[in-house]
Amino acid sequence: MKLLITGVSHKTAPVEIRERLAFSESALPAAVAQLKSRDGVSEALILSTCNRVEIVAAGDDGIDLRGVIRDFLVEARQASAASFSSCLYHHEGPEAILHLFRVAASLDSMVVGEPQILGQLKSAYAVAKAQGALCGLLESVLSRAFGVAKRVRSETGIGQMAVSISYAAVELARKIFGSLDGKTVMIVGAGKMSELSARHLRRSGASHIFVTNRTYDRALELANIFHGTPVEYTKFLSLLPEVDILIASSGAPHYILHKAEMQHVIGVRRNKPMFLIDIAVPRNIAPDVNEVDNVFLYDIDDLQGVVNSNLREREKEAGHAEGIIAQEVERMLSRLKAQEVTPAIVSLREQLEQIRVTETERMRGKLGPLTAQQQEALDALTRAIVNKIAHGPISELRKQAGDPEGGHVVDAIRKVFHLK
User: Fold this and answer.
1) Which comes out higher in pLDDT, residue 43 or 222?
2) CATH 3.30.460.30, the chain: domain bounds
3) DSSP code of residue 285
4) 2-155 in CATH: which number?
5) CB atoms < 10 A from the CB of 378, how many?
6) What percent of the chain has pLDDT over 90?
7) pLDDT at res. 403
8) CATH no. for 165-307
9) Which residue spans of the chain are classified as CATH 3.40.50.720?
10) What is the pLDDT of residue 192?
C-alpha cells in the first residue's frame, strides 16, 4: 500500500492556478467519490482552500498513483496537464505523513500558527468519510494528524500571539483593561478593518458597540451586524465619554479628533482609561492625543510592529513544533511497520494451531479413550508447546518491523515458516 499527496499551494502556484484546480464545497463529495472509484485507489481525500488544493490518495503498490491523480485533475477540473503540472508537488510515503502533520499543525500555512487549516482538514476528512473513502492507512494517518496538531497547540505557543492588525488591537486592549467584559466600543468609519476589530472585541466580551459613518445608512448596516447603535456622524464626539475603546478608520483627509477634545472627554470620564485605535490612512486622530493622561493611542504602524514581533515569536515556537512533528512521524512509521507484519503473525499462529490440532487428533487414536480431564490436560500441553515455539519468531517480527534495516529478517521468517 502506498500513500501519495499531490497538490499546489501559495508556495508553488499563483492564485489563478489555485482557482482553476479548486473544488467548491458543494462539488467536493462527488469529486472524492470519483477519485475513490478509480482503479487501484483504496482511499481518497481532497483538501481545497484559498491557499492550497491537495489530493491525497492511498492505493496499491503496483499502480501509478501520480498518473491517476494527474488524470483525475485533468478530467475533474477540465484543464490540460501542461497548464498546472509545473506547479505540482508530490509527497510519498513518510514524506506524505510528515506533510500532513505539518499542514494540520499549521506549519505549512501562509501565516504560521493560524487555526483555520485544522478545521478545513477536519471538514475534508468528514466529507471523505461520508463517501466511504477512508478505511485504512490514510484514515489512520489523518486521525493521528489531528492528535499531533492538538499536541503542538498545547505544548507550544504557536497560536497564542496575534498576527493580524485587527486581533493585535484586541490584544493591546486586553493589556490595558485586563478584561474586556462590559466595555463599550465606538467605531468611526465602516471599513473592513474596523469591522474585523469590532468582531474580535465583541467575542472578547465588549458589551455594546456604537457605529458612526459619514453615510448614515452604512453606519446602520454595520450596527445591525453587532446589534449595536448607529450614531449620526456629527454627534459622535458627544458620546465619547461613554466609550472605552474607539476604533477610527474613516476616510477623512484630516484629523477628526484632537488633543483638546480628548482632554475634555477624559475629564468627563473622571480619568477612566480610554483606548484609541487609529487604523486610518491618513490618520484620523492627532498624534499628540497620546500625551493626555489615561489615553492610550495606537496607529496602524504601532499595531504592525506588534504583529511583526509576534510573527517572530511564532517562528521560534514553530521550531519547537517541528521537533514534536519529527517525533510523531517516527512513532507513526513504527506503528505502520508493526501493522505490516500483523498478517504474518496471524498466519503463523493459524499454521501452528492447525499442526497442533492435526497431530493431536492423530495421536488420540493411539492413546485410547481419554477422560475430559485428560483431554483438557492434553490441549493445555500442546497449546503451551505451540506458544513457546511461536514466541520467538513473533517477537522478532514485531521487533524487526520497527527497524528500518529489519526487512530482510522479516522476509527470512516469512520464508522459513511459509507465511503470507
Assistant:
1) 43
2) 2-155
3) B
4) 3.30.460.30
5) 15
6) 59
7) 67
8) 3.40.50.720
9) 165-307
10) 79
Residues 6+ apart with CB under 8 A from 72: 34, 35, 38, 55
- Predicted local distance difference test score (pLDDT) of residue 390: 87
Residues 6+ apart with CB under 8 A from 7: 47, 52, 53, 54, 55, 88, 89
Residue 307 and residue 76: Cα distance in Å, rounded?
A: 40
Is the separation of the CB atoms in 272 and 295 below 8 Å?
no
Measured in residues, the chain has a length of 420
Q: How far is 149 from 234, CA to CA, in rounded Å?
A: 50
pLDDT of 386-399, one tens digit each? 899 888 888 887 77
CA dihedral 119, 120, 124, 126 (to 10 degrees): 20
Distance between CA 103 and CA 117 in Å, rounded?
Answer: 7
Render pLDDT for 284-326 as a digit per residue (tens, 0 to 9). Answer: 999 999 999 999 999 988 888 888 888 888 888 999 999 999 9
Residue of 27, 50, 346, 355 marked catalytic? 50
In Å, the largest CA–CA distance within the chain is 114
Cell numbers that stand for 14 in this block: 499563483
Residue 163 has pLDDT above 80, yes or no: no
Tell me the C-alpha distance between 8 and 10, whole Å: 7
Let me know if 50 is a catalytic residue. yes
pLDDT reading at 407 higher than 80: no
pLDDT tens profile 37-86: 999 999 999 999 988 999 999 998 889 999 999 999 999 999 999 999 99
Distance, CA of 6 to CA of 17 (rounded, Å): 14
Q: Phi, psi at residue 109, to the nearest 5°?
A: -80, 160
H/E stretch holding 6 reads strand 2-9
Kind of pairing, strands 295-299 and 41-48?
Answer: unpaired
> What whole-number distance in Å separates Cα of residue 137 and Cα of residue 165?
41
